[in-house]
Task: structure prediction
Amino acid sequence: MLRRLQVLLVAPYPLGQPRGNSVTIERIARGLRQQGARVTLLSPAQPVPRRRFDLVHAFHAYRAGPRGLTLSQQWNAALVVTLTGTDFNHDLRLPARRSVVRRVLKQADALIVFDAQARQRLRERVAGVAGRVRVVPQAVDPCFLSRWGKGKRDALRRQWRRRLQLKESDFVFLYPSGIRAVKDPLFLLRAFPHLRRKHPQARLLFAGPMLERDYGRRFLAQAKKVPGVTYRAAVAPGAMPSLYAAADVVVNSSRSEGMSNSLLEAMGMGVPVLVRAIDANRNLVHEGRTGLLFRNAREFARQAERLLVDAALRRKLAARARSLVRRRHDPRAEATAHLRLYRRLLKEQPRA
Result:
């Protein structure tokens, strides 16, 4: 049956863009294909394939859900919706979008969230979905779990630091995400000078595409005024492991997340993380065990300083985080969980 299973994955944004949703969908597609499913990916601007599918899986209830719902009804196919972050944390609360999200959630055959806390919050906010919500944690691509030898890692670190005009003595905090309001990189530009004044070797490296034009202009204008800040546009996915190797700490300042791919990647690579204490981040990063948390600029500076001055702390956090990711965020387990859900839906609700 697996080789005959036709699955359509509906993306919220054009595939290939350096966004977390694209990383998630493309990784899941690879995993499903490796386990025998026939998978087609559909971007917003792409025409709908002419053939029928057994199951439609939309990623993002607001941006991909309506199209997924229409196609599933057209083909009498099962519909699965993964809530990826902003659909649940923002769109469900906005009057102009709430009704669209609720309609999709109520008509989907199954809903996927990334952790148990998100499942509980969804059950509380949307009546009638409790029995259809499943938890499937995000996974991380195997390239971020490879055990690199110290020689190779050091060579990549030097190579990328030269490319970015960073000195070996610089202590680099890396923000590996798109420049958009919900990620709040402007917060880091306000908070970083508190650290930099005391530790001039601190550098803040932003690596990600400009995803919102007006916000991006504000960010670039402010970044030019902050000493020690470097901005580099999007890095090719295949180069991300090397970029992580060049960093000392990875930071996440998001005001909303589902489960951050970049944090999982950094943790899998053994790079310590410093993250804003929002629910999704706290479910992944446990204070003092797998990373450090901050709530405001003062806490950011204090926690960043702890990491900068204490190499033993960095090693301890990185080792525990890497172990956690290897145990709980395996891509094969992620694909298996999706296929198990697909098969159950098709068995319980056979389509004509």
